[in-house]
Design a protein that fits this description.
By secondary structure, the protein is α+β, with helices and mostly antiparallel strands. Helix content is about 25%, strand content about 25%. Strands 1, 2, 3, 4, 5, 6 and 7 form a seven-stranded antiparallel beta sheet that branches. A hairpin with a 6-residue loop joins strand 4 and strand 5. The longest helix is centred in the last third of the chain and has 18 residues. About 25% of the residues are buried.
């Protein structure tokens, strides 16, 4: 995991509906419960490297469009999965591979993140900083 500290996103507040619309279609809500979650954006073609923006609920419940949220420090994660599994069931598309990854345990949950992914994530975060300014 690599945190991106040079951002104005931490502390940004808004409704779930606002964040969902402002981050669409690149980010999806993941690993959430009614009190917290993450907006994730896939950075690679294999579904192993993600920019993740944590959010916590200040008021309401996360599945409600009018729930108030606050963003945390964005970070990059890389989970390495076994590849080639989808070839045995007839799927070879990277999107299907990424979908299959959610059902298997990562080989390495904290894989080393190459600098290119960190730079790409910083560019995305800079764009979001401008969008939410």
């Amino acid at each position: 995991m690599k945190e991106i500290h040079d951002s104005n996103l931490p502390g940004t507040r808004g409704t779930f509906g606002f964040f969902q619309e402002a981050l669409a279609p690149d980010f999806v809500l993941s690993n959430w419960d009614y009190e917290a979650g993450y907006f994730d954006r896939q950075l690679d073609d294999q579904g192993m490297v993600y920019l993740r923006i944590p959010v916590k609920v200040l008021q309401g419940e996360l599945d409600s469009l009018d729930a108030w949220l606050e963003m945390g420090v964005p970070f990059v994660i890389k989970h390495v999965y076994r590849t080639g599994i989808e070839n045995h069931i007839g799927y070879i598309e990277p999107v299907i591979s990424a979908a299959m990854n959610q059902f298997q345990e990562p080989v390495d949950k904290d894989a080393e993140i190459e600098e290119r992914w960190i730079q790409q994530a910083r560019q995305v975060v800079q764009e979001l900083d401008r969008r939410f300014a």
